[in-house]
Q: What sequence folds into this?
DNA sequence: ATCACATATGAACAGTTGTTCAAGTGTAAG
DNA sequence: CTTACACTTGAACAACTGTTCATATGTGAT
């Protein structure tokens, strides 16, 4: 966090580029939110849940069964996904159905897949 | 991980959907790799590094200066980014320049930004 | 060879995260 | 109002992650 001058001499730093980049950086809050969003994608369980919802809406119980995990674990993760506005839910009697919130989920996961399959 | 039957009765589970979804799920390894990839995006420092590299290639020292962080911290994170094949590097004398590996980075970050700005 | 600089790396430590377990809602049916 | 089911939630604990600090490597100049 300090002592940078010790490593990096004035005359070495590529001042022009540094100055240029410094200009068009999104603000800290936005970058933080962005990282938070990707954190949500960065867990196998949540990725699997999202994938499972690609096809159709499902209830908590269905998802737990599909992923062979406890209903509680799934519920916790659905909450995270919901807070990130990646999924939404609707209630039908005792059952709660979850579904993908919008198409960004598909695009982001699609691009990710493309990347790892290169 | 067990006791599902206790919560979820045979007659309730939406068997048709469950069966259908079960068919076209990517294999476990792929889903794991995908989560690993997004984990890399899920950190403020790494997101900031990627953003900084949107404009032009930069050396470790430049990045550390721009983000006001230690050279060591940046170096550690660049390694993570490199392992995920999100950045690449070239050496020029004592200096090592880092740059974005391909356009997926831009697309993924772009989509992420769109999502949080809704 | 020796020195200085740019970068890399290993160990360690605090902070975060995901699951389980137990207990809590909410809803429909008897 | 009681019971049963679908789901939610809070606490706790192990596992993981990011930074720091100290040290190591690589390169070029003297």
A:
């Amino acid at each position: 966090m300090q002592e940078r001058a010790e490593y990096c001499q004035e005359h070495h730093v590529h001042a022009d580029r540094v100055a240029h980049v410094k200009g068009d950086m999104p603000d800290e809050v936005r970058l933080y939110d962005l990282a938070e969003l990707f954190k949500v994608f960065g867990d196998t369980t949540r990725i699997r849940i999202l994938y499972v919802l690609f096809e159709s809406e499902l209830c908590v119980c269905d998802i737990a069964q599909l992923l062979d995990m406890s209903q509680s674990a799934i519920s916790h993760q659905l909450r995270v996904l919901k807070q990130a506005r990646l999924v939404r839910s609707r209630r039908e009697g005792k059952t709660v159905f979850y579904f993908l919130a919008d198409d960004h989920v598909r695009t982001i996961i699609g691009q990710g897949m493309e990347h790892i399959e290169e």
User: Anything to note?
Assistant: Chain A has a mean pLDDT of 88. Chain A touches chain B through 65 residues (CB under 8 Å). Chain A has seven helices and three strands.
